[in-house]
């Protein structure tokens, strides 16, 4: 691994993988053992995919490469992890939002459901050096909506209540 990069991105990757796993669980996408395996496979795939594309000093560098995207095509990292527990791409499209974007960047993990949904932050930590991170208008309301199980309205997807 690159100079300790794996340790640096552990929180961001586990946050992102746990989020996708929660979406699958809410939609009835497998038993706990399957979902645990899915989460571990997804984390491993992300670690491998990101290891030379993680720049804590320039968090936005490589952002497009690290973006997980479902948009009429299944993201290959999610597809690979789902394949390990026997979920087909067809089944994933039934279980997950048809439009999902997940940004996994140093110090911040955020997502958007729908092409014009609001961007919600799942994880954020201050950058060393005290640079202010980009401000998002509806940050708190979005986090609250996720906790209560509501999501920004999307034409083809409604979030089910998730108990943590």
TrEMBL record:
Pfam families associated with the record: BTG
Superkingdom as given in the UniProt entry: Eukaryota
Location of the Anti-proliferative protein domain: 96-115
InterPro entries named among the record's database cross-references: Anti_prolifrtn, BTG, BTG-like_sf
GO cellular component: cytoplasm; nucleus
Region named Disordered: 127-164
Gene3D superfamilies, A to Z: Anti-proliferative protein, N-terminal domain
Entry-linked SUPFAM superfamilies: BTG domain-like (SSF160696)
PROSITE patterns: BTG_2 (PS01203)
Family, as annotated: Belongs to the BTG family.
Protein name according to UniProt: BTG1 protein
Taxonomic lineage: Eukaryota, Metazoa, Chordata, Craniata, Vertebrata
Gene from which the chain derives: Btg1
């Amino acid at each position: 691994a690159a100079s300790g990069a794996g340790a640096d991105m552990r929180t961001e990757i586990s946050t992102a993988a746990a989020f996708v796993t929660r979406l699958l669980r809410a939609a009835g996408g497998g038993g706990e053992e399957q979902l645990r395996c899915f989460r571990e496979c997804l984390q491993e795939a992300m670690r491998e995919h990101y290891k030379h594309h993680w720049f804590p000093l320039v968090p936005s560098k490589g952002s497009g490469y690290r973006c997980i995207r479902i948009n009429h095509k299944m993201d290959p990292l999610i597809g690979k992890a789902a394949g390990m527990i026997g979920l087909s791409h067809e089944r994933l499209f039934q279980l997950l939002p048809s439009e999902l974007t997940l940004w996994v960047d140093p110090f911040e993990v955020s997502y958007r459901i729908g092409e014009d949904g609001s961007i919600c932050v799942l994880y954020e930590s201050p950058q060393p050096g005290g640079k202010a991170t980009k401000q998002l208008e509806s940050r708190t309301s979005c986090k609250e909506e996720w906790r209560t199980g509501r999501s920004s309205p999307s034409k083809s997807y409604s979030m089910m209540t998730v108990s943590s």
